[in-house]
Each structure stands twice: as structure tokens, then as C-alpha cells.
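Forum > Structural Biology > Help requests

Title: Can anyone predict the 3D structure of Cell division protein CrgA?

Hi all, first post here. I have the sequence for Cell division protein CrgA but no way to get a structure on my laptop. I'd be grateful if someone could post the C-alpha cells.
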Amino acid sequence: MPKSKVRKKDVAAPRTVSRTPVKVKAAPSSTLYKTVMFGILLIGLLWLIVYYLAAEQISWMNDLGAYNFLIGFGCMVVGLIMMMKWR
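Reply #1:
Sure, ran it for you. C-alpha cells for Cell division protein CrgA below:
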């Protein structure tokens, strides 16, 4: 069986593209971002707690029915998504 030809490396040509990863230091999140993030998480949690404990006494909340779960868990999901961007 014939052998394949071996390619010679061109020593004179310098490598132009560097493939080494470079760490980029990102600035920490502002205090306002952290406050809004934790506030939204807390609002979602409090919404669900109030719905479970006092929905019968609050007429407009009782009228929402199952949408209370959407509001409460929706706020918590938004807070968790914001938490992924927190530095």
C-alpha cells in the first residue's frame, strides 16, 4: 500500500490568530440592580403567602383565582433570571 505524502510546515509564516482564552473582568452589579432583583423575588413570595393566608378577605385577589399563581411565580422567575446576570 502506498504511503501518503507528509505535508511540511511553513516555519516562516507567523501565526496571526491567538487561540488562548482571555478573562474579561466584568464590573460588579450596581446596588439598584440588586435591590430590584431581591425586591421582585420578595414580592413574588409575599404575593403567594398573602394569597394562601388571606385570599378570602381580599375580594379582588379572590377574583383573580389561579392567576395569583401566575403572578407570584412569574415575579419569582423574573427575579431568578435577573440573578443569572448578577455579579
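The mean pLDDT is 87. The two ends are 60 Å apart (CA to CA).
Shout if anything looks off.
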